[in-house]
Design brief:
Chain B: The chain crosses the membrane at residues 20-36, 42-67, 88-112, 124-148, 160-181, 201-219, 231-251. Chain B: This is ABC transporter permease. The structure holds two protein chains of two kinds. By secondary structure, chain A is α/β, with parallel strands linked by helices. Chain A is built from eight helices and ten strands. Helix content of chain B is 85%, strand content 0%. The radius of gyration of chain B is 19 Å and the shape is globular. Chain B has helices at residues 2-13, 16-36, 39-68, 70-77, 83-113, 121-148, 152-180, 187-196, 198-209, 217-227, 230-257. The longest helix of chain B is centred in the middle third of the chain and has 31 residues, at 83-113. Chain B has one domain (2-257). The chains are: A alpha/beta, B mainly alpha. Chains A and B meet through α2 of A and α1 and α4 of B.
Chain lengths: 236, 260
């Protein structure tokens, strides 16, 4: 599904990605982990074409994404910080995004219902709380039925009920055979849902495999400690 | 691109500032007409206001809109939309809504005053067309500046400097060089220097159309000889178009390689 070959990205003097090679096959939930500033978001934004890499090739379904935009029809993306144009209402925003992807059927009604967003539909986005904005963000992401779903910190600001709904939603999407890419700092969440993890450290892939592999490799009984031990051994 | 243009345009149409801008021109038109009671004179006064004010508003609005719609841009970038369409759509949205405020705001009082039955109709139309061109040019330049500067304050600073240079400093340098080199033949120099600055070019175009080039003295005669002909008129129109096309090209070019 996604093939990344020797990806490099610099912001000024700061080299964020130092040669990423990664192949992700269709189907399953992949968690991209790593400490702050390890290049998770940059990697995701490169796949989306929001960041232009200095070097390397990214292919989606066999075709290079360079200078192309049509491939984004196959991607649903949840940005890390829900920044929306403030003077639009929730309804208008949903309508606008639907209009931009008019070749797809949107399933917004069900999601609005799921996250109980009806009372906010006519409110302006500026006046919403952080958690509600994140719910709107989730509706916008999940309302289209694309084969690749990219979620950057999906749990930020969500209350426990929405958190559970989100997990159910992700599992349901996986059952449809979709590829889901997630970044998160909440280890319990990652452990619960992901099939495989990709651990980034200082712009390189430090570990890739299942959580069980990670536990054996680091000789730690639980996931959180395994990650911590990986970090401390690399810092040492 | 048309979809982005539509959203930017409606977004701006709902903003307070478009109305303030529109009402300002409406008021200006009405006041000038009632003070002057003469269409041609009103057009001349308007020209002086438009030549300075339109570039200023275009620059400031362009920069402001770019920085304010950052969130909107980021949202669009993840959607299946071509990058250049996003920025060109936003640019045209700003430029067209500003031009509309100008044309409708000034047009209404003049229409009610009876511009259609007067000889000043062509002068007035030329005034509006140059005004629209200046809006397109300076909004495009503002977008280029904003794209090149992540920092808002810097972007605003450069934009204001650009306006100051084009509208004020350029003329100063021009005049000083005319005085300094007065011993030499300066016809070609002044022609070229005028044509290289869209503000000056618009001013001269309108002045000549108004048949008051006698006020310009000897230079006026030279200018009349050049701009008065069809060739001069076409060349200056072409230059205005180039002034729109070049920054637009840069918007597209810069948008392609920027990281978000």
């Amino acid at each position: 599904m996604i093939e990344i070959d020797n990806l490099h990205k610099k912001f000024g003097k700061n080299e964020v990605l130092k040669g990423i090679d990664l192949t992700i096959d269709s189907g399953g939930i992949f968690a991209v982990l790593g400490p702050n500033g390890s290049g998770k978001t940059t990697l995701i934004k490169s796949i989306l074409g929001m960041v232009v890499p200095n070097d390397g090739i990214i292919k989606l379904n066999g075709a290079s994404i360079k200078q192309s935009w049509e491939y984004r029809n196959d991607i649903d993306y949840l940005p890390q910080i829900a920044n929306f144009p403030g003077n639009l209402t929730v309804k208008e925003l949903i309508k606008m995004i639907k209009d931009l992807r008019s070749n797809k059927t949107a399933d917004d009604e069900r999601l609005i219902d799921l996250f109980k967003l009806q009372p906010f539909l006519d409110k302006k986005l500026n006046n919403l709380s952080g958690g509600t904005k994140q719910k709107v963000n989730l509706v916008l992401t999940f309302m289209f039925d694309s084969p690749l779903v990219i979620l950057d910190e999906p749990t930020t600001g969500l209350d426990p009920i929405s958190h559970i709904r989100l997990k159910e939603l992700i599992t349901a999407e996986k059952q449809k055979g979709k590829t889901i890419l997630i970044t998160s700092h909440i280890m319990s969440f990652v452990e619960e849902i992901s099939d495989e993890i990709v651990f980034l450290l200082e712009g390189k892939i430090y570990f890739r495999g299942s959580i069980a592999d990670l536990k054996t490799k680091t000789e730690q009984p639980d996931f959180e400690h395994a990650i911590a031990s990986m970090l401390s051994s690399s810092y040492a | 691109m048309l979809k982005i243009l539509k959203y930017s345009f409606f977004d701006l149409m709902r903003s307070r500032w478009s109305y303030v801008y529109f009402l300002f021109y409406l008021l200006l038109g009405i006041v000038l007409l009632f003070l002057n009671n003469d269409l041609s004179k009103a057009v001349i006064t308007l020209m002086n206001v438009i030549i300075i004010l339109v570039p200023l508003i275009g620059t400031i609005f362009g920069v402001m809109y770019y920085y304010n719609s950052k969130e909107f841009t980021e949202l669009l970038l993840a959607q299946p939309v071509k990058r250049s369409s996003i920025f060109l759509g936003q640019y045209l949205g700003v430029a067209l809504s500003l031009s509309m405020s100008l044309i409708i705001g000034l047009g209404l009082p003049f229409v009610f005053y009876g511009i259609f039955n007067s000889g000043a109709i062509w002068d007035f139309s030329l005034l509006l067309v140059t005004g629209a061109f200046l809006t397109l040019i300076f909004t495009a330049l503002a977008f280029v500046i904003a794209l090149a500067n992540e920092n808002k304050i810097k972007g605003f600073g450069y934009a204001i400097l650009l306006w100051l240079f084009m509208a004020v400093i350029y003329d100063g340098i021009f005049l000083m060089s005319l005085v300094y080199f007065e011993e030499y033949p300066l016809d070609t120099f002044s022609l070229v220097a005028t044509m290289l600055n869209p503000v000056d070019l618009s001013r001269v175009l309108i002045l000549l159309k108004l048949d008051i080039s006698a006020l310009l003295g000897y230079t006026g005669a030279v200018f009349q000889k050049f701009f008065g002909t069809n060739f001069g008129f076409i060349l200056s129109s072409l230059l205005l178009v180039i002034w729109v096309a070049v920054p637009t090209f840069f918007i597209q070019h810069m948008a392609k390689r920027k990281d978000f």
